[in-house]
Amino acid sequence: MNRFIPCRTRLSGRASTLVAAGAGIAAGTAAGVVAVAIAAGLALGGSTGAGNLDGLLEVAHVPPLLTVPGEDVTLRYAIVCPPPGGDIASGAPCDGSGDVYIRAGQSGPFTKLALERGSDSIEGRWFVRVPAQIATSTDGFSYYAVLRNDATGASTTLPAGGEAAPQRSLPLRKAVTIDLGAHDFGQARHADERVVSAPWGTGADEAGLSAGKTGRIGPSSFDVSAGGAVTVLDEINRRAVRWTHGRAAATALDLTPGIDDMSVGPDGTIYVLDARDNGSNPAVRAFAADGKPKWARETGDRTWAKLEMGPQGPVVDELPSEEWMPAADASGPLERRAQARNGMSGRPLSDGSELVVLRVGTSELRLARVAGGDVEKSWRILSGTPLGEVQLTEQHGNAVVVVLKTYTEAQDQFLVLVLDGGGVAKQFSLDPAEWAESAPLARFRLSGSSLYQLGSSPAGFFVDRFDLEVNR
Amino acid sequence: MTVLSRAPRPWLVFLALFALACSLAAVTVAKASFWSANCNYATPSQTANLTRDGGQTYSNVARYEGYQWGGGCWNNDDVDASWGDPPENVGTQGEGGDCSGLTFKTWRESTNTGDGASYYWAPLRNVHGPYDAASFRAGIGAANGTVYKPYAGVMDAFASSYHIGMVFFRATSGADQIVEAKCELCGTNIWLRTYRSDPAYGGVRRIGWTG
Lengths: 472, 211
Hints:
heterodimer; B: two-stranded antiparallel sheet
């Protein structure tokens, strides 16, 4: 039975077919447009025009990794989720809550403390003051939090490893206190050698530059082998370039240009930590020395700070957990849950110890070498000039090398400190040379007794070497 | 032979072409531009609340939704519908805000630079606002001001002459978790950045946070 009776009755065969074709196209076009409009409308969602936001739950926290005697310790959290009903239009905070599970020392049962909700969110709206008997424990304390959106029941654990890898806070009872005073921006050390220098470009011995109205991105990371070979992540040209005695050898990498971090393993494997625009966490990607992809794994957390080689493979400093998580161990790459379960507050070193870093307030750095869960050496560095990010902390014999930024509104320099049990064994400043952007904490590497700096200028990029023989 | 030479039944033709046109129209509309297919120009609503964590939530919706030079329209599907568009071209009309567009909407500002009140702009409401990064850096507009960088906190921002990113939270390293619309290939996300210690960037803030 043909239900399109009007066509049949009014028009003969070919004509009716043509009309039907036209009608089909017209109706179909209209239906297609309507379908798109309905889809868009659904995406638009209710009155807020934001769609379904029930799944949105993000958190943040700065753990008090190192405390000083007499310090009032309050744990503060940001719980970021829509207000009840997904009403982000209101601008109101979400209906959040949370519990902190905390204990004195590093073992034993946890005690549950409910977070309070404050009136301001500039440092995190939810907080709990750590009870004095826990905050003053000689072994420090450890804790994790379960944070919730009470309107939807969604919850998340921070750090991601929860009870298996809780956040750890240690007391600095015998820290060497160093007061740097006000910084003198006039004294920058010159390099002992410029080991790599290349102009911007796409050629074999050049480096890619993305320069536009939104800024400049150059080589985003680099690494230096024990023998002094420099490998540069030239991601704008989708390659890693190994520089040996001034000669460049490029290895093509299947990567999207961006601002990523990189480390090279002792077997020549190139590890790249990238951030993707596809709704998933960043990924650590392993490439053979010839550029062939070996494996890739999502990181445990949403944001990365730094990629380094750990004792058993690549480790990533991740946020919001604020822990170093292994991306792989001796058996191979690790899935996200395994990464999180093995998170550590400090950067793991080859001898089993850790380096723990905490920038406090506007102008203080706390640093500790931790072995067997105890603080072995520690330093408290105070400055009369604001301190920025810590770029590098590395064990160097019995000393620790630290590179951090000091800045004013108009000036900045990197400050290099070689710290030992007596305090500052060596200190010098470096010009930032940050004409082009790189990964945030990837501007320095230590190899042997030399510090290397990745820098850039309008002419190109370079890697400078600074020798660190200690002269007290 | 007779069957082959006969004209197809009209209702079958209608159905076939209806289905074809449905799909072609959908594809055509979807590919026209993200703006024309998805965005609206509704009047913003004035709001009493202007909380920093409300700003965090709003900017968090924009994560993974892409970057569009001169843009300010995105949905919430965690897919950049126009990834890889030619950069710095407002004519591509793709998904996402640019750095100042994201900041303007997150900070609930008015298109009237003399108005410091707060207005909700839905994610799919396409608006960039009157400020570029340099304007924010200078603290231009009744809603904007500057802040001493060491004191910048959640949802304050760091702005240069070419970029602006908002503080999502601080980090133990002394760097900051920054939520920003970074570039066409990078999109919008939370990254660790060192803008705080970079003299190219100044501290800027939305005036009038309520909590």
